[in-house]
Amino acid sequence: MEANPYKLRALPNDDIYFFTKRVDNAGLVRQADPKTRGECWKAIGAACILAGLLGGVMTPHINGTLNGYKLQSLKAEHQTLVNQRRVLETEEAELLSPTHLNSLAAKGQLASPTASQVIHLEPRAENSMAMNLAPNLTSSAR
Predict the structure, then answer these.
(1) What is the end-to-end Cα distance of the chain in Å, rounded?
(2) Which residue of 47, 48, 104, 132 has the fewest C-beta atoms within 10 A of its own C-beta?
(3) Number of domains making up the chain
(4) Residue 14 counted as domain residue
(5) Looking at residues 120-139, what average pLDDT do you find?
């Protein structure tokens, strides 16, 4: 008998068969281990303490960073307000300049007042201030 050249040799453990069996563990209850429960609570407590310490260490740094951002924004706002103030002061100086006021008077056909139209007010004396005194309630009650 001649051997077939295309036939493969047998695989190792080809003659072994495995059977599966369904196992239902629904009725089983795991027994509580008090030692592992205590270890779990210790780990949770340690994690909370570590998180608290980390938060306490990081809070000043984060607060300083946020204050730095706020300071920079306030500096920028201050510079903007200074620039706006300069522009407004320039505009005010232009509007209150005698040449501008004279041109407005000429447009409105206004003239300078004569000497008889000007009334000079007398300055007040130094001791002429009114004094508000609270009524003395204790003397009127007797």
Answers:
(1) 149
(2) 132
(3) 1
(4) no
(5) 68
